[in-house]
Design brief:
7-stranded mixed sheet
Length: 260
């Protein structure tokens, strides 16, 4: 496993000289570079990132053995296509698709789906066959043939998706994820000052928190929420068998992080 930091910043002549001493080549002006935590310069650089007002985007690269040995893996979308409808400028989907009566206005926890999703039109898939839409980070949408070939075999249901004229879209289905699992929470997170619920940060470095116990399902959402600001969502996890089935078909559109 490697922890990788993508550092984006405005490079001054002074910063350029300091990075050069660390064998990091950047251009003056806005630039970015990657460095992993095994690099001997990382500890020194870490102290400087905040003072430089740089943006540090953290990701984790796992070994094949770590991926293959995991009983559960988090499924993460590699792209977000379009916005849920209607009235995207006013977040109209929260009233149409969700029951948001008990949703916390501060953190966004508490809404649940009551109706099918509405898109403007069928997605432009390209070579990909599974996606998420913007603003909704705990639901996945797939091509019908992908659902039929893989997810159906693992007992995963689906829901239809419609356009704004209430016409069923032909090239996309919502994966129906009913089950919930608990994950181990050792530390971190924040308590919402309005609703009192615990929420974990959206980015977790290294292994995703381990599942608590065994579960008789192949896809589930975490009971605990993740997010920041007014956006909260549950993480979606899949069994090793479902992960291997998706990987063997070289499905494009998602990536996976093993649970610890």
């Amino acid at each position: 496993m490697k922890i990788i930091h993508r550092i984006s910043l405005t490079v001054t002549p002074e910063i350029q000289k300091e990075l050069k001493k660390m064998n990091i080549d950047v251009e003056q002006g806005f630039d970015a570079f990657e460095i992993d935590e095994t690099n001997s310069c990382w500890l020194d650089l870490e102290e400087k990132v905040e003072s430089w007002k740089a943006v540090d985007t953290v990701s984790t690269k796992f070994t094949k053995e770590e991926m293959a040995g995991a009983k559960w893996l988090r499924m993460i979308s590699e792209w977000h296509h379009g916005y849920p409808q209607p009235n995207e400028n006013e977040f109209g989907y929260l009233k149409v698709t969700y029951d948001s009566e008990k949703m916390c206005e501060k953190c966004g926890i508490g809404a649940f789906q009551k109706s099918p999703f509405v898109f403007k039109k069928d997605p432009t898939w390209g070579k990909r066959s599974i996606l998420q839409v913007n603003w909704v980070f705990d639901e996945f949408f797939a091509k019908p043939e992908l659902w039929d070939e893989i997810f159906k075999e693992f007992g995963v249901g689906h829901r239809e998706v419609f356009d704004r004229n209430n016409k069923k879209l032909s090239s996309v289905l919502q994966l129906e994820i009913k089950d919930k699992i608990d994950i181990r929470i050792d530390n971190g997170g924040e308590i919402c000052c309005q609703c009192g619920q615990l929420r974990l940060p959206p980015t977790i470095k290294g292994f995703f928190p381990a599942a608590c116990g065994d579960f008789d399902t192949h896809i589930a959402k975490t009971n605990i929420y993740f997010g920041s600001g007014a956006s909260s969502y549950r993480a979606v996890v899949v069994s090793s068998d479902l992960y291997k089935a998706i990987s063997s078909k070289k499905v494009k559109g998602v990536k996976f992080h093993p649970l610890g």
